[in-house]
Write a structure and sequence with these properties.
The protein has about 500 residues and is mainly α. A two-stranded antiparallel sheet has the order 1-2. Strand 1 and strand 2 form a beta hairpin. Helix 1 runs antiparallel to helix 7.
């Protein structure tokens, strides 16, 4: 039986070294992904941009991440995290440099859209960390990976203005700052490839039998899997609508219709690939030892929709919410209070994983989802009559349950089906982005109090769904190349 204890300072352990390699790679992807946001005034001035054009960049920044997490999940299961993470860092670094060199708004917008792919880096490390840590430590390890890596967005907000204005300076300071991050990511991509390994020495890296979609093990799961893909296409259609003349008017109506047509074609193609991957199973059934419940994946998708989706949305609006609610509050103070929601990632996400390891997966996730539901309900009651300190305390408390919930989700993901961990992580991660776009779309139509109540209501639904989750127990099985069945401990 393995210990829950994890000494992060003991870099003599290959697993600990791998964890540090992984979270820093994820950290870099988030710095690149959000490097432009704190440089808004400088970038807008360089291109004489309107506020609507800036909003379009923010939309484009997340648009590609949803399908990218699915694609990256397939690639990492097929080729391994070592090569996929290295390539992602190198290619994203080049795109980062190209973004900094853009001379027209159209170039800037296209490169920002392409850089949305870097947001899929998270998925790679989930599979890598899951390979290196046993079930009794995997929640904590995944929480450290996710929480410390997620801090990259906050680090970008803190560091990028200083680098652009103080270290480089001048009208092109923002270009040099973003280029420097891109160059560093390229170098780290090479370093990562030279140091990382897919599995511990002597372990087998299990790959899916077929590529193109998840292998499911029952006819019922096949149809549930198809159904769970539909919301991702619907939310991409919503993003196209936001860029249309009805939204920020970056796209013409004709282009918007064309994009929706492309999404329909891609949906049909993906469904055909899913059928191709699962054709034999539909005809002959799956071996008993290989069966797993896709409903487990569906539950985790919905839990991450609420937890990470609400995090993305709330972080985007919280500073403005504080300024609107408490008249006279400075921009700096509102930004500081708003950043507290994301900074909690450093401790709450690893804490959620650790609690999940120690006290049970379903019980822990249930508590965190219920806690964030209450947290958002309390936040919906915040008004100007509240002391600022009490409002800030309510936000921090809610944030703890939100981040711990994301940690608890990915404490379970590596325990569903080893050879498809990348794809399962990719789908859950994509659902987090779907949640973020959904909540932000709702926020564009309602006031802040109603927005928080809406999140609380969806969290209540997620809490009910989480009760259908099976507690991982016993072993999962995978088949070695020689046909031998290998058992992987889940407790």
């Amino acid at each position: 039986m393995s210990s829950h204890h994890l000494n992060l300072l003991d870099v003599s352990q290959p697993s600990v070294r791998t964890l540090h390699l992984a979270w820093f790679a994820f950290f870099l992807t988030f710095v690149m992904w959000f490097a432009h946001a704190p440089l808004k005034p400088l970038i807008m001035q360089s291109f004489q941009m309107t506020e609507d054009q800036w909003k379009a960049l923010l939309i484009l920044n997340v648009a590609l991440t949803i399908p990218a997490r699915i694609v990256i999940g397939i690639l990492v299961d097929r080729f391994g995290p070592r090569v996929v993470y290295a390539l992602l860092l190198i290619v994203s670094g080049l795109l980062c440099i190209a973004f900094a060199a853009a001379r027209t708004f159209e170039q800037l917008a296209m490169l920002r859209f392409m850089l949305g792919f870097v947001g899929a880096g998270f998925v790679i490390g989930i599979r890598l960390v899951g390979e290196w840590f046993p079930a009794r430590q995997v929640g904590l390890a995944e929480g450290i990976y996710g929480g410390w890596g997620n801090f990259g967005s906050a680090a970008a907000a803190i560091l990028m203005p200083t680098v652009a204005l103080t270290i480089f300076g001048g009208e092109n300071g923002w270009r040099y700052a973003i280029s420097a991050i891109g160059a560093f990511a390229i170098g780290y991509g090479v370093f990562f490839y030279s140091r990382a390994r897919n599995t511990p020495k002597g372990s087998t890296y299990f790959k899916p039998k077929k590529s193109g979609g998840l292998e499911v093990t029952s006819r019922r799961d096949f149809y549930l899997y198809l159904a769970m893909n539909i919301p991702m296409y619907l939310i991409l259609a919503v993003l196209a609508w936001r860029l249309s003349p009805a939204g920020v008017a970056l796209l013409s109506q004709t282009t918007t219709y064309a994009l929706c047509g492309v999404l329909c074609i891609l949906c049909v193609y993906q469904f055909s690939q899913i059928h191709k991957v699962n054709r034999d199973m539909l005809q002959k059934g799956a071996p008993e030892h290989d069966k797993y419940k896709f409903s487990q994946v569906a539950v985790l998708n919905l839990a991450y929709f609420v937890a990470f989706g609400s995090e993305i949305a709330v972080v985007s609006m919280l500073p403005a919410f504080f300024m609107d609610t408490f008249s006279g509050m400075s921009i700096a103070m509102a930004g500081l209070l708003g950043s507290s929601f994301a900074i909690m990632n450093l401790v709450a996400r690893p804490g959620g994983g650790y609690i999940s390891d120690r006290f049970g997966r379903r019980r822990s996730l249930s508590i965190f989802i219920f806690g964030l539901m209450l947290g958002y309900f309390i936040m919906s009651q915040i008004s100007s009559a509240w002391p600022v300190a009490l409002a800030a305390a309510a936000v921090v408390a809610c944030s703890f349950f939100v981040q711990a919930g994301t940690g608890a989700v990915f404490a379970i993901v590596p325990l569903v089906k080893r050879r498809m961990t990348g794809q399962i992580a990719g789908m859950a991660g994509a659902y987090g982005n779907v949640g973020g776009v959904t909540y932000l779309t709702v926020y564009s139509f309602v006031d802040a109090g109603t927005f928080f109540l809406f999140i609380a209501a969806t969290a209540l639904v997620a809490f009910a769904v989480v009760q259908m989750l099976d507690e991982p127990a016993g072993h999962m099985t995978e088949v070695l190349a020689d046909g031998t069945i290998q058992k992987i401990e889940l407790t």
